[in-house]
Design a protein that fits this description.
By secondary structure, the protein is an alpha/beta fold. It is about 40% helix and about 10% strand. It has 16 helices and ten strands. The strands form two sheets. It has a seven-stranded mixed sheet, sandwiched between helices. About 40% of the residues are buried. The protein binds pyridoxal-5'-phosphate. Pyridoxal-5'-phosphate binds next to α5.
């Protein structure tokens, strides 16, 4: 990759009066813009020829890493398979060019797709009804918790203000509960990584509205005592919420509805394809068991992220009833293969069979001082996206790996070899690993500064540079 590209800003290539395109002569008449709307100074835009602009943006696009560039073993927030046929179907003009305010009599086909997808989700999850409206997983959680709150309130049971969340939960779980105005209570995991039912017992009473769970949990472990947990939660009058962001390991094998879950969301953008880097687009449909369907929202802007629903439906249909059952077992096989091949070099805090993902607690040899961050950065030099790092919070050096079902054995073997090489480098040339990445367009960025003071315009960037940031 070319390290000079980032210094090569389009503003610096500007030449006064140079143009990339000239508008044709206006033969349609002339309308005055009211003077109060008119700007008084010309906009400060770069003036460049067409090829300079095209090359500038093409070079920038090539600095991105995505599933179409290389292996992307990100755990939990899976960046999964995104078959090209989904894109073709989602961008068919008959669907893509619909207007949300079109009369509903003219959008019957789109409505049928939504209905059929809802039915497919019911079949796959064992729940009774779905809404496709929420725009993301977190939005689905909030919607689901509001459904649960409405259910308790309708029964006049207003003292239920707590939500129980495992200590291994995804950060959005406690956040959604708090946004919903509910109090978060944490339930501990045992040494084997699953929920401590003895601790749970002490938390359950008539002030609990719901318990949220992920199964397999964020350690990739299946919560085997789920029937017992469901009975305990229901016996105290609360509902059981399923975080189905990553439903892929269960598809066609078992169903949250059969495990005793009352309400759930699915991330269509993780489980049923749709690329979602950089925060979107997404869809977090919410499903409920029979008896709760009247609490699902019916008013929302339009029909949710319809193009994401289109991709999900195309993906489900292209897999079909039989192949959908292969997703979980193949992802599970791939995850266990990587785990077993690497556990001599990387520390496996919880041994045994995992599902679609697993967590290492950094390198086994802690004497080298090489951290999970260093390993993640060094992977970039070898052309691999880093796994999820420092999540879940149960370990100090979490490295969460999820290979997904669609990767070839050669790809997975390539990743294993590179991980082994990094472990070896950590012993032999640790400085080189600590200072990685060495061949990406930019090195290590200050994540905290970038999040707190995002610089998104050229002018500000210049100011920052003057300040020596
Ligand atoms: C990704 C994820 C979420 C949140 O989904 P968003 O679409 O990012 O809001 C919730 N729970 C789990 C387990 C996840 O992996």
């Amino acid at each position: 990759m070319n390290n000079k590209l980032y210094g090569d800003l389009i503003f610096e290539r500007s030449h006064t009066g140079r143009k990339g395109y000239s508008l044709p002569k206006n033969r349609m008449g002339h309308y005055e813009v009211p003077s109060s709307w008119r700007r008084t100074t010309a906009p400060q835009l770069p003036e460049c020829d067409e090829m300079t602009v095209v090359r500038h943006y093409t070079n920038h696009s090539e600095n991105n890493f995505g599933v179409n560039n290389g292996f992307y073993p990100l755990g939990s927030c899976t960046m999964k398979y995104n078959p090209c046929i989904n894109e073709e179907i989602a961008t068919l003009p008959q669907f893509a060019q619909l207007h949300p305010l079109q009369p509903s009599s003219t959008t019957r086909g789109a409505q049928a797709v939504c209905h059929l997808l809802e039915q497919a989700l019911c079949t796959l999850t064992g729940l009774h009804a779905f809404t496709l409206k929420p725009f993301a997983g977190a939005h689905g959680e909030l919607t689901g918790l509001m459904v649960i709150r409405a259910y308790h309130e309708q029964r006049g049971d207003t003292k239920r203000i707590k939500v129980i969340v495992p200590d291994s939960a995804h950060g959005t779980n406690p956040a959604s509960a708090a946004v919903c105005g509910l109090e978060v209570v944490e339930v501990k995991s045992m040494d084997d990584g699953t929920i401590d039912t003895e601790h749970l017992k002490t938390l359950l009473d008539d002030s609990v509205a719901a318990m949220m769970m992920t199964n397999p949990n964020t350690l990739g472990l299946f919560e085997k005592r789920i029937p017992e947990i469901a009975a305990m939660v229901h016996d105290c009058g609360a509902l059981l919420y399923y975080d189905g962001a990553n439903l892929n390991p269960l598809l066609g094998v078992c169903r949250p509805g059969d495990m005793g879950f009352d309400v759930m969301h699915i991330n269509l953008h993780k489980t049923f394809s749709t690329p979602h880097g950089g925060g979107g687009p997404g869809a977090g449909p919410v499903g409920v068991r029979k008896g709760l369907e009247n609490f699902l929202p019916c008013v929302s802007p339009y029909h949710g992220n319809f193009a994401v629903a289109m991709r999900a439906y195309a993906y489900i249909l292209s897999l079909g009833r039989d192949n959908v059952k292969m997703v979980g077992p193949l992802a599970t096989l791939n995850a266990n293969y990587i785990k077993e091949c690497l556990k001599d070099e990387f520390l496996l805090p919880i041994d045994g069979l995992c599902k679609h993902e697993f967590v290492f607690d950094g390198l086994r040899d802690k004497s080298t001082g090489i951290t999970t961050m260093d390993v993640a950065k060094r992977l970039l030099d070898y052309g691999y996206h880093a796994p999820t790092i420092y999540f879940p919070l149960l370990f100090h050096e979490s490295l969460m790996i999820e290979p997904t079902e669609n990767e070839s054995k050669e790809t997975i073997d390539g990743f294993i070899e590179v991980m082994k090489r990094i472990a070896q480098e950590s012993r032999e040339t640790p400085e080189m690993v600590k200072s990685a990445p060495h061949n990406t367009p930019i090195g290590r960025v200050d994540d905290v500064l970038a999040a707190k003071h995002p610089v998104t315009t050229y002018q500000q960037m210049k100011g920052e540079a003057d300040d020596n940031h």
